[in-house]
Amino acid sequence: MFGSGEEFQTSQGASAVSLIDAVFRWCKALKGEDTIESALAAIAKGVGAEAMTLSRVRHGSFQAAKCVTYDTLSSASPKPRLTRSFAASILSEFMSIARSGTVWLRSVVEVETDPALDLFHSRRKLQELVVIPLQTDHGFSDFVEFHFLDPLSRNQHALLNMLAETLSEAWRNRSHGVFAACALEDKRQERDFDSVDLLGHENPARLSRAEYRVCLLLSRGLPNKGICEELSISNATLRTHLRNVYAKTSTDGMPDLLYLLLKGPRQRPQGDLRRIA
Protein backbone atom coordinates (compact mmCIF):
# COMPACT_ATOMS: atom_id res chain seq x y z
CA MET A 1 0.00 0.00 0.00
CA PHE A 2 2.85 2.38 0.79
CA GLY A 3 5.47 1.16 -1.71
CA SER A 4 8.77 0.28 -0.06
CA GLY A 5 9.04 -0.29 3.67
CA GLU A 6 11.13 2.81 4.36
CA GLU A 7 9.65 5.44 6.66
CA PHE A 8 8.49 8.82 5.38
CA GLN A 9 9.09 11.22 8.26
CA THR A 10 6.79 14.22 8.65
CA SER A 11 7.64 17.28 10.75
CA GLN A 12 6.03 15.48 13.70
CA GLY A 13 8.09 12.33 13.19
CA ALA A 14 5.19 10.29 11.83
CA SER A 15 6.06 7.32 9.62
CA ALA A 16 4.51 5.02 7.08
CA VAL A 17 4.19 2.47 9.89
CA SER A 18 1.90 4.79 11.89
CA LEU A 19 -0.18 5.39 8.77
CA ILE A 20 -0.66 1.67 8.25
CA ASP A 21 -2.06 1.54 11.77
CA ALA A 22 -4.24 4.57 10.98
CA VAL A 23 -5.65 2.92 7.84
CA PHE A 24 -6.30 -0.26 9.85
CA ARG A 25 -8.28 1.74 12.44
CA TRP A 26 -10.14 3.59 9.67
CA CYS A 27 -11.24 0.34 8.06
CA LYS A 28 -12.30 -1.12 11.41
CA ALA A 29 -14.26 2.01 12.31
CA LEU A 30 -16.13 1.93 9.01
CA LYS A 31 -17.14 -1.65 9.74
CA GLY A 32 -18.45 -0.62 13.16
CA GLU A 33 -15.63 -2.37 15.02
CA ASP A 34 -13.92 0.79 16.31
CA THR A 35 -14.87 4.44 16.77
CA ILE A 36 -14.49 6.98 13.98
CA GLU A 37 -12.97 9.39 16.50
CA SER A 38 -10.12 6.98 17.25
CA ALA A 39 -9.55 6.49 13.53
CA LEU A 40 -9.39 10.25 12.93
CA ALA A 41 -6.99 10.62 15.86
CA ALA A 42 -4.68 7.95 14.40
CA ILE A 43 -4.76 9.51 10.93
CA ALA A 44 -4.11 13.01 12.32
CA LYS A 45 -1.12 11.72 14.26
CA GLY A 46 0.19 9.92 11.19
CA VAL A 47 0.23 13.01 8.97
CA GLY A 48 0.91 15.60 11.68
CA ALA A 49 -2.48 17.36 11.53
CA GLU A 50 -3.79 19.51 14.38
CA ALA A 51 -7.46 18.77 13.70
CA MET A 52 -9.64 16.74 11.35
CA THR A 53 -13.24 16.62 10.21
CA LEU A 54 -15.30 13.94 8.49
CA SER A 55 -18.33 15.58 6.92
CA ARG A 56 -21.28 15.22 4.56
CA VAL A 57 -22.21 18.40 2.69
CA ARG A 58 -25.33 19.02 0.64
CA HIS A 59 -24.54 20.43 -2.80
CA GLY A 60 -25.22 24.16 -2.91
CA SER A 61 -24.78 24.56 0.85
CA PHE A 62 -21.84 25.73 2.95
CA GLN A 63 -23.09 23.86 6.01
CA ALA A 64 -22.39 20.18 6.65
CA ALA A 65 -25.46 17.98 7.12
CA LYS A 66 -23.38 15.58 9.22
CA CYS A 67 -19.99 16.17 10.81
CA VAL A 68 -17.55 14.32 13.09
CA THR A 69 -14.50 16.19 14.37
CA TYR A 70 -11.20 15.42 16.05
CA ASP A 71 -8.99 18.09 17.58
CA THR A 72 -5.68 17.80 19.42
CA LEU A 73 -6.54 20.96 21.38
CA SER A 74 -7.74 20.46 24.93
CA SER A 75 -11.34 21.42 25.64
CA ALA A 76 -10.00 23.59 28.48
CA SER A 77 -8.05 25.80 26.06
CA PRO A 78 -9.39 29.33 25.40
CA LYS A 79 -8.64 28.85 21.71
CA PRO A 80 -11.50 27.60 19.49
CA ARG A 81 -11.75 23.88 18.79
CA LEU A 82 -12.75 22.59 15.38
CA THR A 83 -16.52 22.03 15.42
CA ARG A 84 -17.53 22.21 11.75
CA SER A 85 -16.48 21.40 8.20
CA PHE A 86 -14.84 23.89 5.83
CA ALA A 87 -14.72 21.52 2.86
CA ALA A 88 -17.30 23.52 0.89
CA SER A 89 -15.20 26.66 1.34
CA ILE A 90 -12.33 24.98 -0.52
CA LEU A 91 -14.20 22.91 -3.13
CA SER A 92 -16.82 25.60 -3.82
CA GLU A 93 -18.31 25.05 -7.30
CA PHE A 94 -16.19 21.91 -7.75
CA MET A 95 -17.88 20.17 -4.82
CA SER A 96 -20.15 17.92 -6.90
CA ILE A 97 -17.53 17.03 -9.52
CA ALA A 98 -14.33 16.65 -7.47
CA ARG A 99 -12.95 13.16 -7.99
CA SER A 100 -12.92 10.89 -4.95
CA GLY A 101 -9.47 10.23 -3.53
CA THR A 102 -7.90 13.48 -4.75
CA VAL A 103 -6.09 16.03 -2.56
CA TRP A 104 -7.14 19.70 -2.47
CA LEU A 105 -4.98 22.31 -0.69
CA ARG A 106 -6.28 25.67 0.47
CA SER A 107 -2.97 27.27 -0.46
CA VAL A 108 -3.34 26.12 -4.08
CA VAL A 109 -7.06 26.37 -4.85
CA GLU A 110 -8.26 29.83 -5.87
CA VAL A 111 -11.61 30.35 -4.14
CA GLU A 112 -13.48 33.20 -2.47
CA THR A 113 -12.27 33.81 1.07
CA ASP A 114 -14.41 32.30 3.83
CA PRO A 115 -14.37 34.72 6.82
CA ALA A 116 -15.23 31.91 9.26
CA LEU A 117 -12.30 29.82 8.04
CA ASP A 118 -9.97 32.82 8.16
CA LEU A 119 -11.08 33.54 11.72
CA PHE A 120 -10.61 29.95 12.88
CA HIS A 121 -7.14 29.60 11.32
CA SER A 122 -6.08 32.99 12.66
CA ARG A 123 -7.09 32.16 16.23
CA ARG A 124 -5.39 28.78 16.06
CA LYS A 125 -2.39 30.00 14.02
CA LEU A 126 -3.04 27.32 11.40
CA GLN A 127 -1.53 27.68 7.95
CA GLU A 128 -2.96 24.91 5.76
CA LEU A 129 -6.21 23.08 5.11
CA VAL A 130 -6.35 19.89 3.04
CA VAL A 131 -9.61 18.36 1.78
CA ILE A 132 -10.01 14.86 0.35
CA PRO A 133 -13.35 14.03 -1.33
CA LEU A 134 -14.48 10.54 -0.32
CA GLN A 135 -17.74 10.00 -2.23
CA THR A 136 -20.49 11.89 -4.08
CA ASP A 137 -24.02 10.49 -4.21
CA HIS A 138 -27.63 11.75 -4.36
CA GLY A 139 -26.87 15.46 -4.00
CA PHE A 140 -24.39 15.04 -1.15
CA SER A 141 -20.60 14.78 -0.99
CA ASP A 142 -18.52 13.27 1.82
CA PHE A 143 -15.13 14.69 2.75
CA VAL A 144 -12.29 14.29 5.18
CA GLU A 145 -10.28 17.43 5.93
CA PHE A 146 -7.02 18.17 7.75
CA HIS A 147 -5.87 21.38 9.44
CA PHE A 148 -2.11 21.96 9.82
CA LEU A 149 0.00 24.37 11.88
CA ASP A 150 2.59 24.77 9.12
CA PRO A 151 2.68 24.58 5.32
CA LEU A 152 2.88 20.97 4.16
CA SER A 153 6.31 19.43 3.89
CA ARG A 154 7.15 17.31 0.86
CA ASN A 155 6.80 14.15 2.94
CA GLN A 156 3.42 15.16 4.35
CA HIS A 157 2.17 15.83 0.85
CA ALA A 158 3.39 12.41 -0.26
CA LEU A 159 1.70 10.71 2.70
CA LEU A 160 -1.61 12.42 1.96
CA ASN A 161 -1.44 11.42 -1.70
CA MET A 162 -0.86 7.82 -0.65
CA LEU A 163 -3.68 7.92 1.87
CA ALA A 164 -6.33 9.62 -0.25
CA GLU A 165 -7.47 6.75 -2.48
CA THR A 166 -7.27 4.22 0.36
CA LEU A 167 -9.48 6.37 2.62
CA SER A 168 -11.95 6.88 -0.20
CA GLU A 169 -12.17 3.20 -1.16
CA ALA A 170 -12.73 2.12 2.45
CA TRP A 171 -15.39 4.80 2.83
CA ARG A 172 -17.34 3.55 -0.18
CA ASN A 173 -17.38 0.06 1.37
CA ARG A 174 -18.40 1.16 4.88
CA SER A 175 -21.17 -0.50 6.89
CA HIS A 176 -24.61 1.10 6.66
CA GLY A 177 -25.41 3.67 9.36
CA VAL A 178 -21.93 3.97 10.86
CA PHE A 179 -21.47 7.63 9.94
CA ALA A 180 -24.99 8.75 10.89
CA ALA A 181 -24.77 7.30 14.40
CA CYS A 182 -21.31 8.75 15.04
CA ALA A 183 -22.22 12.20 13.68
CA LEU A 184 -25.27 12.43 15.93
CA GLU A 185 -23.24 11.56 19.03
CA ASP A 186 -20.43 13.94 18.08
CA LYS A 187 -22.85 16.83 17.68
CA ARG A 188 -24.35 16.16 21.11
CA GLN A 189 -20.90 16.27 22.67
CA GLU A 190 -19.51 19.28 20.81
CA ARG A 191 -22.28 21.85 21.12
CA ASP A 192 -22.15 23.44 24.53
CA PHE A 193 -24.65 26.29 24.07
CA ASP A 194 -27.82 24.32 24.80
CA SER A 195 -27.68 25.15 28.51
CA VAL A 196 -26.73 28.85 28.27
CA ASP A 197 -28.27 32.05 26.95
CA LEU A 198 -26.58 32.77 23.63
CA LEU A 199 -27.44 36.48 23.97
CA GLY A 200 -26.65 36.73 27.66
CA HIS A 201 -24.25 39.35 28.97
CA GLU A 202 -21.49 36.69 29.20
CA ASN A 203 -21.60 36.39 25.38
CA PRO A 204 -20.63 32.67 25.51
CA ALA A 205 -20.11 32.37 21.74
CA ARG A 206 -17.89 35.47 21.67
CA LEU A 207 -20.03 37.13 19.02
CA SER A 208 -18.83 40.40 17.57
CA ARG A 209 -21.01 43.48 18.01
CA ALA A 210 -22.42 43.11 14.49
CA GLU A 211 -23.05 39.38 14.92
CA TYR A 212 -24.78 39.99 18.27
CA ARG A 213 -27.10 42.55 16.69
CA VAL A 214 -28.02 40.14 13.89
CA CYS A 215 -28.83 37.41 16.42
CA LEU A 216 -30.83 39.82 18.56
CA LEU A 217 -33.00 40.80 15.58
CA LEU A 218 -33.45 37.15 14.63
CA SER A 219 -34.65 36.45 18.18
CA ARG A 220 -37.24 39.24 17.71
CA GLY A 221 -38.57 37.48 14.62
CA LEU A 222 -37.23 39.77 11.91
CA PRO A 223 -36.63 38.18 8.47
CA ASN A 224 -33.37 38.67 6.62
CA LYS A 225 -34.74 41.62 4.65
CA GLY A 226 -35.87 43.34 7.84
CA ILE A 227 -32.46 42.79 9.46
CA CYS A 228 -30.69 44.34 6.46
CA GLU A 229 -32.97 47.37 6.62
CA GLU A 230 -32.64 47.76 10.39
CA LEU A 231 -28.83 47.57 10.31
CA SER A 232 -28.36 49.26 6.91
CA ILE A 233 -26.30 46.36 5.56
CA SER A 234 -26.37 44.39 2.32
CA ASN A 235 -27.51 40.80 1.89
CA ALA A 236 -23.88 39.80 1.27
CA THR A 237 -22.80 41.35 4.58
CA LEU A 238 -25.64 39.59 6.40
CA ARG A 239 -24.62 36.24 4.87
CA THR A 240 -21.06 36.83 6.09
CA HIS A 241 -22.28 37.60 9.63
CA LEU A 242 -24.47 34.49 9.63
CA ARG A 243 -21.66 32.23 8.44
CA ASN A 244 -19.49 33.52 11.29
CA VAL A 245 -22.31 33.00 13.79
CA TYR A 246 -22.88 29.42 12.57
CA ALA A 247 -19.19 28.70 13.05
CA LYS A 248 -19.01 30.22 16.53
CA THR A 249 -22.20 28.51 17.76
CA SER A 250 -21.57 25.11 16.13
CA THR A 251 -24.93 25.32 14.37
CA ASP A 252 -25.75 23.80 10.99
CA GLY A 253 -27.89 26.63 9.67
CA MET A 254 -30.77 28.99 10.40
CA PRO A 255 -33.19 26.46 11.99
CA ASP A 256 -30.50 25.27 14.39
CA LEU A 257 -29.49 28.83 15.27
CA LEU A 258 -33.09 29.93 15.82
CA TYR A 259 -33.58 27.05 18.23
CA LEU A 260 -30.72 28.32 20.39
CA LEU A 261 -31.91 31.91 20.21
CA LEU A 262 -35.58 31.30 20.91
CA LYS A 263 -35.08 28.91 23.81
CA GLY A 264 -33.42 31.68 25.85
CA PRO A 265 -35.08 34.25 28.15
CA ARG A 266 -38.03 36.10 26.66
CA GLN A 267 -36.75 39.46 27.87
CA ARG A 268 -34.24 40.76 25.35
CA PRO A 269 -32.60 44.19 25.14
CA GLN A 270 -34.86 46.70 23.38
CA GLY A 271 -34.29 50.10 21.89
CA ASP A 272 -31.57 51.57 19.69
CA LEU A 273 -29.25 48.83 18.49
CA ARG A 274 -26.34 51.26 18.37
CA ARG A 275 -26.36 51.15 22.20
CA ILE A 276 -26.46 47.37 22.34
CA ALA A 277 -23.41 45.09 22.60
Automatic annotation (TrEMBL):
<dbReference type="GO" id="GO:0006355">
    <property type="term" value="P:regulation of DNA-templated transcription"/>
</dbReference>
<protein>
    <submittedName>
        <fullName>Transcriptional regulator, LuxR family</fullName>
    </submittedName>
</protein>
<dbReference type="InterPro" id="IPR016032">
    <property type="entry name" value="Sig_transdc_resp-reg_C-effctor"/>
</dbReference>
<dbReference type="InterPro" id="IPR000792">
    <property type="entry name" value="Tscrpt_reg_LuxR_C"/>
</dbReference>
<dbReference type="GO" id="GO:0003677">
    <property type="term" value="F:DNA binding"/>
</dbReference>
<feature type="domain" description="HTH luxR-type">
    <location>
        <begin position="200"/>
        <end position="265"/>
    </location>
</feature>
<dbReference type="InterPro" id="IPR036388">
    <property type="entry name" value="WH-like_DNA-bd_sf"/>
</dbReference>
<dbReference type="Pfam" id="PF00196">
    <property type="entry name" value="GerE"/>
</dbReference>
